[in-house]
Amino acid sequence: MNTDKITNILHYMAGLHKSIYVNFRVLPFKDAIKLPIIVSRKTKLSSLSGRVILDKNKTGIIRIGFGNVRLVDFAYERSILHLEGTIHFRGKCKIGKASKIEVGACGYLDIGENFTISAKSKIICHKSIKIGKDSTFAWDSLIMDTDYHDIYNDNEECINADKEILIGEKVWIGTRSTILKGSVIPDHSIVAANSLVAKMYDDEYCILAGNPAKIVKKNVSW
């Protein structure tokens, strides 16, 4: 057994008490007993008043706060799970160390099977975010469907309501990219590093790049 595997096992064991607490707090007993959600000891549980839905249930199928990004020091960085709404896991999911997940009371976060998000990334869901299967988010990514603060016009009408985000299947989000409310990213898309996505796109198998992002190349795959 190599050093990385031994280290991971030790990290799993160190966070076992938190994993047990999370499972029995957000899942029915019949699901929680299998411990499908494993969290690292470096995960801050700021709220667990919401719920989790699982399409598949297997020990450790959901892992939060782990990973092997060498430029993120596990000793000094921590993940955060703030769950007031609903997270729907369609299958296997890995949420990297020092990443943050916030689901507000009215939020519905739908995560497709075989999803991976790397270190120090953030998902903020106050309305609806749907992510297709086999998608990957690189480190320092930000996905948010809200502006957090309301803006009103002269008639005291809110002009910046939360809007859902739809991310297709097998989408690769590059490092330090930002995906804002109302975004639609089609299947098999690639978002280049440090890009800003804030609208709907139609074409699949494309690279989106820039601020704001635009299609820079078509007929690509990864």
**What do we call the CATH topology?**
UDP N-Acetylglucosamine Acyltransferase, domain 1
Please give the CATH architecture. 3 Solenoid
Widest sheet: strand order? 1-4-7-10-13-16-19-21-22
Q: How confident is the prediction overall: mean pLDDT?
A: 94
SSE series: HHHEEEEEEEEEEEEEEEEEEEEEE
CATH superfamily: Hexapeptide repeat proteins
Largest sheet: 9 strands, mixed
The proportion of residues in beta strands is 25-35%
Oligomer: single chain
Q: In the CATH hierarchy, what is the class?
A: Mainly Beta
Bin the helical content.
10-25%
Q: Sum up the overall morphology in one term.
A: globular
Radius of gyration: 18 Å
* N-to-C span: 31 Å
Summed up, the domain count is 1
- Derived from helix and strand composition plus strand pairing, the structural class reads mainly beta
Question: Which ranges are low-confidence, i.e. pLDDT below 50, for 5 or more consecutive residues?
Answer: none
